[in-house]
Amino acid sequence: MKIGVVTFPGSLDDADARRAAAVAGAEAVALWHGDADLHGVDAVVLPGGFSYGDYLRAGAISRFAPVMETIIKKAGEGLPVLGICNGFQVLCESHLLPGALIKNHHRKFICKDQPLRIENNRTAWTSDYDANHEITIVLKNQDGSFVADEATLDRLEGEGRVVARYLDENPNGSYRDIAGITNERGNVVGLMPHPEHCVETLTGPTTDGLGFFTSVLKAVVAS
């Protein structure tokens, strides 16, 4: 199975995401932002970084990349898509997910090992976790505060579309401690923390992030 990882100008964690896909047992495929062809991949990761330097607004320019036109179309047809950090911002700017990501409430860049609770394990990217499974993965962001109007937040809560929630403390001011959400179908997930940095004991505080990548392989087999 093939997991494609998009590189935008300013992506920082594309190589890490490809490594995580390989550790999970997939073939990692590098996708270029300017190429609309997904080259037959079974799932796509939009990685972390500062695409286009976060000019205008984080993720706002990447949303119009040729590759995103195809991803938006294919996501509507069920293609699993995971947006991590900047990738989450791109998903919101593309309207594949509701809400927006804005500056952290303390206006500072943050980098820490962050406890999370997986609240929805029925998505293409979280099925390898137990419901309410508590994990610790790396968090690093400057525009990581998830915001939405009350009606949208209530809908996300009521439909069980909050995928992950911050534990212990809210590190960036995200409304209702939300760290990740999914679309209605469960194939598109946006996550602010970085599971790709937590797949091997050598480089991460845990290997708790690996489940995101093994989950999607099972989802592809089941589809």
TrEMBL record:
Record keywords: ATP-binding, Cytoplasm, Glutamine amidotransferase, Hydrolase, Ligase, Nucleotide-binding, Purine biosynthesis
Domain of life: Bacteria
GO biological process, one term: 'de novo' IMP biosynthetic process
Molecular function (Gene Ontology), one example: ATP binding
Gene3D superfamilies reported in the protein's UniProt record: 3.40.50.880
Span of the signal peptide: none
Name of the featured protein: Phosphoribosylformylglycinamidine synthase subunit PurQ
Organism field: Kribbella jiaozuonensis
Lineage of producing organism: Bacteria, Bacillati, Actinomycetota, Actinomycetes, Propionibacteriales
